[in-house]
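Onboarding guide, step 5: your first structure request.
Type a short instruction followed by the sequence, for example:

Predict the 3D structure of this protein.
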Amino acid sequence: MTTQYSVTFVEELPPPERRGRKSGIWIDRLKPVMDLPDRWAMIAEGPYGNISRKAWLLKKVNDDGTDHVAKPPGVWEFAVRSHGIVMDEYGEIVYDKDGEPKKNGALYAKYVGVPDTGRVSIADDIAEVVGEPE
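The system replies with C-alpha cells like these:
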C-alpha cells in the first residue's frame, strides 16, 4: 500500500484513540499500596530494561491528560532500582552482549494520596474506575 498525501482542513482535531482498559492488572497490583500511603513498596522485579519500561509506562500521561496505564486514582510515584543480577533456570549468571552480567531491576511504587478534588472518599474514586463490587 502506498501513502496518499493531501491537505484537508478540519475544524478541530479528532479525539486520540483511547488505548488500554479502564481496569487492568496494575489496578489490582497497586490497590494494596494504597493501604499505607507515603511508603514505598516493591511491586515487580525482573530484567532491568523491562522494569524500566514498566515504570515509564506507569508514569506516562497521554496528550489528553489521562494515564497511559490504568491505575487507581490518586497521586503516585514510581522508581526503579538495581536488584541483583539475572540468573538463568540453572542458576548461572546471564551476560549481555558486552560480557557484563545482566542486571535485575525492582519497580517501586508509593501512593502519595488523593489530590484535592472535593471528593469525600478515595472509595468514590476507586468505584468510578473499577466499578461497584458485586
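Each response can be followed by summary notes, for example: The helical segments are 25-30, 48-59, 122-130.
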